[in-house]
Write a structure and sequence with these properties.
This protein is an alpha+beta fold. It has five helices and nine strands. A six-stranded antiparallel beta sheet has the order 1-2-3-9-4-7, with no helix packed on it. A hairpin with a 2-residue loop joins strand 5 and strand 6 (about 140-145). The longest helix is centred in the first third of the chain and has 21 residues, at about 1-20.
């Protein structure tokens, strides 16, 4: 048991460093957010200081992760994830599948019919159709995607997506900051001229 505990404790520092770097945070900015000194954060990440709850709790809060993600404690209890769908006023449903700010966000969405309204913003999007048909307007292009088809695009181009007809469409929706493009590439469907 002591050896297992040592392995768990030894893994916390590298995990903290990876989380901070993935979020492109400096030790200084994390120190401001958590109230933990730069030297303490550095010693935690390098394994020169043992983590305590009064250090881990503010770090978990700052990174918006569960404490057990920092500790990588052995699994216990119910392994199912209980997601909380967000119901929109227009009848659409959004289910966040990730909780990592500053990184690629993943959502499952059920989109209800609505009028197209083109938008632009910074970022990169990737859409995968699970069920139904998705209409995507991207600049001058207007295309329909069917189950199993994928679209990816820079969100600085005017765009809109929603059901292609009067039925809802179910999609996986990935959104990331500029430069965080999904590496999956798909060729256009042979029956779709777009």
């Amino acid at each position: 048991m002591d050896e297992e505990l040592e392995q768990i404790l030894d893994g916390i520092g590298p995990r903290l460093r990876t989380l901070r770097r993935d979020r492109r945070l400096t030790l200084e900015s994390l120190a401001v957010t958590t109230g933990i000194s730069v030297s303490t954060l550095s010693r935690l990440e390098s394994g020169k200081r043992r983590p305590t709850l009064d250090l881990l709790i503010p770090l978990a809060h700052a990174h918006r992760v569960a404490l057990d993600q920092l500790v990588a404690a052995p699994a216990s209890g119910d392994p199912r994830v209980h997601l909380k769908p967000l119901r929109k006023s227009n009848g659409s449903v959004l289910v966040p599948l990730t909780q990592y700010p500053g990184r690629v966000q993943v959502f499952k969405q059920v989109l209800s019919p609505r009028e197209p309204k083109l938008v632009t913003h910074d970022g990169y999007e990737w859409l995968y159709v699970l069920a139904g048909e998705l209409r995507l307007i991207l600049g001058e292009r207007d295309c329909t995607l069917r189950p199993g088809e994928v679209a990816e695009f820079d969100t600085r181009e005017p765009h809109w997506f929603g059901p292609a007809d009067l039925n809802a469409v179910e999609i996986l929706h990935l959104f990331g900051p500029r430069g965080d493009q999904v590496v999956v590439r798909a060729s256009p469907s042979t029956n779709d001229p777009a």
